Amino acid sequence: MNKVLHTRSLEHKKSQYLIDLVKHDSGKHFIRIVQSVNEEGKFSKSEIGIRPSLVRQMILTLQELHEQVPKSEYEKGETLSPARTKKIVESYLKNVSIKDLMLGNDCSEEDILQILRNASVAITEEKLPKSKRRMRRR
Fold first, then answer.
1. How many whole angstroms separate alpha carbon 87 and alpha carbon 93?
2. CA dist 34 to 14, 25, 45, 127, 132, Å?
3. Which of 50, 80, 122, 132 has its CA 20 to 30 A from that of 114?
4. What local confidence, expressed as pLDDT, does residue 43 receive?
């Protein structure tokens, strides 16, 4: 049985990508990418396993191909820079509300929650606890 050691999730429109670091029964590690697409009620799932020795070359190839895509084909606000993502996480940890992060970064609530989940940040309720004491008038 394969054991998942670490998981990251990326969501975009109708697709979700799970990227796992998996330890095989033989003791060797590999990267597994699972794409789930839900389009008009039809659900499809694709999976690919990548050996660790190929990861660096695959990243370089993807970067080269990424540079060849015209900038006009990118959607506005599609991705956030690592620095901006880090700033969102740091702000949330300093008790900035999700609503304020949404307004300040021009992102949806789902985007903010996804960033926090990917950074392994515990998401808490934003309501203040109710006091057990009654307020007295003087």
1. 10
2. 14, 19, 7, 36, 48
3. 50
4. 87
Residue 64 structure tokens: 């080269």
Residue 71 token pair: 């900038």
* Long-range contacts, stretch 37-46, CB < 8 angstroms, 24+ apart: 38/14, 39/14
pLDDT-above-70 percentage for the chain: 86
Strand-pairing partners, residue 21, are: 6, 31
pLDDT tens column, 48-95: 999 999 999 999 998 999 888 887 776 655 567 778 888 989 998 888
Q: Please, which residues bridge with residue 47 across strands? A: 34
Task: Report the pLDDT value the prediction gives residue 132, as an integer from 0 to 100.
Answer: 65
Cα distances (angstroms) measured from residue 54 to each of 13, 30, 50, 127: 28, 10, 7, 47
Question: Which stretch of DSSP H or E encloses residue 45?
Answer: strand 42-50
How many residues are recorded in the chain? Answer: 138
What angle (nearest 5°) sits at the alpha carbon of residue 117, between those of residues 2 and 124? Answer: 125
